[in-house]
Amino acid sequence: MPSPLAEYAKALIIGDVESCFYDQYPGISDLGLIHLFSISGFQVTYFFVFFKEKFQKNVFSQGTFSHIDCSCNTSFFVFSDSVQSLIRPIIAAELSLFASYFNLRVEKEKIWSFSLATGLLLSPMLLLNLGGQLSYLLSFSLMFIAHLKPFKQGLLMSSVTIPIILNSKFTWHFLSMPANFFSIPIFGIVIMPLIGLAVVLHPFWTQAVCFINYLVALFADLIEMISKIPGKIVFGKMEDYLVIPLVCLILLSFDQRKKIRNFSLMAIATAFTASFCFIHFPMNGEFSAFDIGQGDSLLLRTPLNQKTILIDTGGKVALPQEEWQISKTSSNQAKSIIINYLQSKGINRLDFLLLTHGDMDHVGNAKYLFSSIKIKHLIVPLGMTKTNSFRREIKPYLGKTDVIEVTNQVQIRNFPFRILHPFKSGSAVNEDSIALFAKVGNLNVLTAGDLPQEGEREIASRYPDLKIDLLKFGHHGSKTSSNINVLNHWQVKYGIISAGRHNRYGHPKKETLETISRLKIRAFNTQTNGMIRFVYNNDKSYFQTFTKDFNDSD
Fold first, then answer.
1. pTM score, two decimals?
2. Residue from 66, 87, 69, 63 nearest 15 by CA
3. Of 34, 43, 126, 33, which is closest to residue 89 (Cα–Cα)?
4. 333-359 as b/e, with b when 16 or more CB fall inside 10 Å?
5. Are 92 and 115 in contact, with CB atoms under 8 Å apart?
6. Cis bond before residue 2 (omega within 30° of 0)
7. pLDDT tens-digit series, residues 290-303
8. Which end of the chain is less enclosed by CB atoms within 10 A, N or C?
9. How many CB atoms lie within 10 A of CB 534?
10. Contact at 8 Å (CB) between 363 and 389?
11. What is the end-to-end Cα distance of the chain in Å, rounded?
């Protein structure tokens, strides 16, 4: 099928939402319309109603109808690859048919509970993904909204998802509720039947399918257009322990008793306000290395989010590919790793983006950042703006960002790092890498891109009193960097290696690992530790990796 009909049909008919779906259609996520593709059950309900209206009254008895419908549901679940999003509606439908066949009255709460218990038995990770959470939450909410008017029903269904979406997506749009009121009826009355019709007609009537695709594309484009209207708030990651209490309070805010409604609304406002303040004005700062694969990307975020500095962006060399080699499910690292993390911390702008030099594994993702987040200043080594890589990868996406070229003689106002290298203009190769020094918490930190050993010796010679507690090892742990005499002179205690798993260069090299061992440096490696953070405040500091926290005295 043509796009976007193909993606919509796969998500809604089979229930399989691909990982790249929300990257292709970000407006669905930004406007909180994920539940349209997560609650599922549309196709099961449509089939049940259609089959019952057409055949039960005139052709089949109640018992025969129940047998056929039960068999069809089970077959559909098996042949759709038993995707998670179908577990709840299929189980609920089967249980309802069972009760109807034996003339039993089973409360809807029991049907929901049984579908949840069975779903967890079949798929224990069911509630650890956004689709499963929204599916069960919204179906749970539907059981208690019969007493509400249609407007309040829509308001509840839109509101109750906010804590879960903020916990996973970190943003909220002022237009999300109006968009829900507008989209839900169109989706159920128009879009879903059209997609079902397209599936039936596709093998026989291509022109009709193309027309349906045109209508679906209009709907998809309208959602994207609305999502681009100013009003998006980067809230940050809602803490896990707040999600369920807030969901309960939102449900109670629609209670028929006025006192309970008023109390719930006050508690909701207090919780959201306090959470927003704690996220946007944290007492801790951090110096972090993203797990970006074979590349570099570092973040310095000072306490209260006063300064946000990103050093390099990671990236991959784009080799020529034929059409069959291009993955349709891949997403860029800038969005999936860097921007997601920044938004989880309530960061919607960068004070400084610094690119140490021009290699693609340091600057390749920059273009995605410029289009997604406000960047006030871009810092590059002197001479980089004249290179072809800058003209191709950076300049077309700059917008209003201010570009600053530097050597060690340039010190930038309100920039917390001291620039130690380069000493002269160059062409943004490894030898021209920017070296940065700063006091971060209680540690002296140095990072120098892919600067080779000769550059390290020049820095040690020009700044003989320099002492380093935490070093981001040069060139991903290559033997061309990390001179043992220089590291010994700097008295390095901790190190960070940023390298891809099973990379073709063999980083970090054996020689670097031997240097680390001989100097007894406590080294962290993104290959084995994942993302690495040094977290600090006035009272304490510690290292945090994907699996474990370490005090700086450990």
1. 0.86
2. 87
3. 43
4. bbbebbbebbbbbbbbebbbbbbbbbb
5. yes
6. no
7. 999 999 999 999 99
8. C
9. 26
10. yes
11. 58
